[in-house]
Amino acid sequence: MINKDIFREYDIRGIADKDLTDEVVYLIGKGYGTYVQRRKAECGIENLSEVLIGRDVRLSSERIRNALIAGITSTGLDVIDLGIIPTPVFYFSLFHYDKNAGMQITGSHNEKEYNGFKIGFGKTTIYGEEIQKLRRLVEEGKFKQGEGKVSSRNPIPDYIGTLKERIKFKNSLKVVFDPGNGTVGILLEELLRDYPIEPAFINLEPDGNFPVHLPDPTVDRYMNDLKSLVSELDADLGIGYDGDGDRIGAVAEDGEIVRGDKLLGIFARDLIKRVPKAKVVFDVKCSKGLKEYITQIGGVPIMWKTGHSLVKAKMKEEGALLAGEMSGHMFFGENYFGYDDALYASLKLLQIVSETGKGLRELASEIPHYISTPEIRIECPEAEKFEIVAEAKAYFFKKLAGRKCEIIDIDGVRVEWEDGFGLLRASNTQPILVLRFEGKTEKRLEEIREIFLSFLSKYSYIKIPAS
């Protein structure tokens, strides 16, 4: 009855009308309510009688909310319905209301027919084996019984107040914002009010049909309108968000996209000025230039697996004050809570641009430059993607043994040479393979790309992208 593949590495994600029917969501709710109560007994964590539930603006989210709440309350837990909120506001609510359980209903940047859950326990999100434990609980069907009640709260005013209190700047900026008709649009205008910002908005109205483009700032074509308006208005920069507000994309004053690893480098320099030798965690998709830059400015670079829950866990393990991913997830531990928040990140970026008096292009240019591709996403059957990556690891370890390169296999396979790198990994949220390449020259970039695409060419069902 339940598709096992929706229980992914760091969330639950599937096609709403197929994988997340009312019956399935109800069982997931019962499973989660049971999971929370079992973990309470194991961990001795207090404040586990109430579960926070938030949702994004997708058309299926309200239906899913209703079935999920019915399942959770049937196990005896109470539910606090937070309404439509960006994912960072859900995370904020765990801290602000001092609760230790909750689920955010969101399909993030996926196609509009998708939806899913980010699953909270304690003050963070579960991942890996804990999500599989939840799956097994659902399949086992031995649920706690009870009768919980439902109440509502609106955390948005307190969230906005917290951000405004923690981030201030004086010099005015002209900025274009594109929430992509996603969830950020419900609060963006109010958040920016009282800041010295002259804002321009596109695709502001929340709309789960996403009529103009999917809210995903890692896809270059979805940033085209933002780029055009930044140039047309002679704006200082542009900022885009994903569907649930935990990922940021940026466009410099010259209309060029500034990738997530460059943004992390800018945040790192700001932090390391105050905290010498600060650790900065980043994922395997980030540029070699970022690693070199963090070292150059006196920080400690730490490469880790891709995935918001995985990066948060590594950040906590290392005691790091900053982390980020190529995809635009940015995590702030200095003066903040350590979770990924694109709204906080955008205010922090504006603060840095305002206070330094430097344009975003100039700030980004301080980071060593490699010619690079954006993320390349290749459709691949869900059942085969991890097997292909495992075969790639074996292939590259054998083929490149003794060569002047480093093979990093913490997440997929990343091969680093002195003048570039190539990466192949399986997405944990979609039936795709993710590739990224970079080199000091166009020629070197193409050579590295060819090494990886040559390996993939033996799989007849994979469509190799053009150069």
Structural write-up:
- There is one protein chain.
- With 467 residues, the chain is of the alpha/beta class.
- Helices cover 38% and strands 22% of the residues.
- Helix 2 (22-43) crosses helix 3 (61-73).
- The mean pLDDT is 95.
Task: Walk me through the topology.
Elements: E1 12-15, H1 16-19, H2 22-43, E2 50-55, H3 61-73, E3 78-84, H4 87-96, E4 101-105, E5 114-121, E6 124-125, H5 129-140, E7 150-152, H6 156-166, E8 173-178, H7 188-192, E9 197-201, H8 224-233, E10 237-241, E11 248-251, E12 257-258, H9 260-274, E13 279-283, H10 288-296, E14 300-304, H11 308-318, E15 322-324, E16 330-332, H12 342-356, H13 360-365, E17 371-372, E18 376-379, H14 382-399, E19 406-408, E20 413-417, E21 420-426, E22 432-439, H15 442-456
Parallel strand pairs: 2-3, 2-4, 3-7, 8-9, 8-10, 13-14, 13-15
Antiparallel strand pairs: 1-5, 4-5, 5-6, 10-11, 11-12, 15-16, 17-22, 18-22, 19-20, 20-21, 21-22
Helix pairs in contact: 2-3, 2-5
